[in-house]
Amino acid sequence: MSNQEPYWLGRASEELQRLHRQHYIWTKNIGYLVHPTIASTLPEKARIADIGCGTGIWLSEVAKVSPSTYRFDGYDISDASFQPADSLPPNVTLGHGDFKKPFPEELHGQFDLINIRLIVISMGEGVWESTLRNMLALLKPGGAIQWTEGDFLVARGFRGANSTSSGGHYLTQGQLKLNSTLVKRFGYNFPDFNKLFTDAGLQNVGEDVSSTDRFVDQRHEFTEIGIGAVFGALRNVASAKQEGYWTEEEVEQFRLKAVDDMQSGAYLRWDLHVTFGFTSK
Ligand SMILES: C[S@@+](CC[C@H](N)C(=O)[O-])C[C@H]1O[C@@H](n2cnc3c(N)ncnc32)[C@H](O)[C@@H]1O
């Protein structure tokens, strides 16, 4: 069913800017672009793919700090977010790919590392295992997969450190409204990644979990980015005009109150998961 769902985060330029800011703040919080356990296994002529690559920012940034002998390929169902080819490093290309379907045979067994980040809003009930299988088919024996997701189902507002902070009530309200709407629409859920990877036969599986409030000085920016995603998606969802959904006007009223929460010092908090594993040699 989720195969037919529209892409609720949208592709407007403000969303693309949000994706770039998100890249930098997530990377700083997590502390690496490629997990050190994976980085040390990559061969001299590593081939690396990013699936659901969005603008291609992760590939471009990894290319900048990697040997020029590495080759990077990004795949996305839509090219609407792609950075122009001439602004990409010369060893990075972006093209079409749908992770819900098996990839073309010629791509099977070609890659040393598959990266996936932040596609949870396009998933739903019963699609995680098959999506993972589609991606694993791309790996060489002994190849690595790294999957980074935000668990927004645990997200809520929190009272900030200063005495004038609100309790973050409207930050929580917006997030809970989006979560419950998506859960009802297409079974939006967050899997147990360690189990998902282990059940798929991956080896040396590891999972790093960090919190968006890990560094106090990041709380405001994570909240700003979160407000953009939550209320942007609620605005897009409002167009479905179904019973119990907020109208565009209601979304805007709640958004302004959530911004007041943030300005008072309250913040939105969720978990970041990086899971990795290797295929057998
Ligand atoms: C939130 S963006 C994240 C982009 C990028 N991974 C990042 O972290 O900056 C999710 C991306 O997944 C893509 N996407 C959604 N469904 C897809 C599918 N079935 N196959 C490939 N890409 C898909 C969307 O087009 C969008 O670019």
Question: Which strand order does the major sheet show?
Answer: 3-2-1-4-5-7-6
Small molecules bound: S-adenosylmethionine
Largest sheet: 7 strands, mixed
Strand content: 15-25%
Outline type: globular
Indicate the structural class. Answer: alpha/beta
Class in CATH? Alpha Beta
Q: How do the SSEs run, as a string of H and E? A: HHEHEEEHEHHEHHE
- Under CATH, the topology can be stated as Rossmann fold
Number of strands: 7
CATH superfamily: Vaccinia Virus protein VP39
Number of helices: 8
If you average the pLDDT, what whole number results? Answer: 95
Low-confidence spans: pLDDT under 50, at least 5 residues? none
Rg over CA atoms = 19 Å
* CATH architecture group name: 3-Layer(aba) Sandwich
Number of domains: 1
GO molecular function: methyltransferase activity
Protein name: S-adenosyl-L-methionine-dependent methyltransferase
Pfam family, one: Methyltransf_23
InterPro entries: SAM-dependent_MTases_sf
Which secondary structure elements does this structure contain, and how are they paired or packed?
Layout: H1 13-30, H2 36-39, E1 47-51, H3 57-64, E2 71-76, E3 92-96, E4 111-117, H4 128-136, E5 139-158, H5 169-186, H6 193-199, E6 203-211, H7 219-238, H8 248-264, E7 267-278
Helix pairs in contact: 1-7, 5-7, 5-8, 7-8
Bound molecules: S-adenosylmethionine.
S-adenosylmethionine binds at residues 7, 9, 19, 23, 52-54, 57-58, 76-78, 81, 97-100, 117-119, 122.
